[in-house]
Predict the structure.
Amino acid sequence: NYTACSGNNGGNYATLNSLEFYGATAAMSNGNLDVAITSGSGFYPASRPTISPFTAGKKYYCEVTIGSKTSTFQSVGANTMPHYMTGSGDQYVIWRSDGQLSENVSGSSRTGSGGTYTNGDLIGIAYDNSTQELKFYKNNLLAVTWTFSSIPENFNLYTGTDSTGGTGNFTWNFGQRPFAYTPPTGFLSLCTTNLPDPTIADGSTAFDVV
């Protein structure tokens, strides 16, 4: 962990969690920052990072570059499970590459359009815990804004594909290399240094081995 003069501190950065994904395959490479997702009939495969910005208490920014696909659509969003699957009880916000928006969070259900994106587009993601506002940028232009009334437990970012077969590719950057675009003012990379200080300084006061 270190404090940077720019204010965007460094430390152990988030990567994709190789133990938490849903689908036929989610082949990860490049230090678990690149993922090739292969879909199959009946499910929506996806992958999620090791640190969630929704429970970390501050303002966070990251980027994901959309790679080539053979599936009908790719998706960027957030959910409560490592997959997006109709009827599973999952709560989610999804922005599909064909432009469709949908939300099912804490009883709130919304649909709309956020514009399309395709191979080579860079999606910036900014979340503010103080306002519970999630913003998506397409090539540095604001494309989608969601404001939540509450954040469900285990909510986390994800990328995925549709359930009709085919593949989708994504490349994440949580701050371990320079961002393509300057983060909004006050927004930090997703790493351990930028997490809130623990409320219990000495863990042995709360639990121990007997």
Summary: The longest strand covers residues 59-69. The chain is about 0% helix and 45% strand.
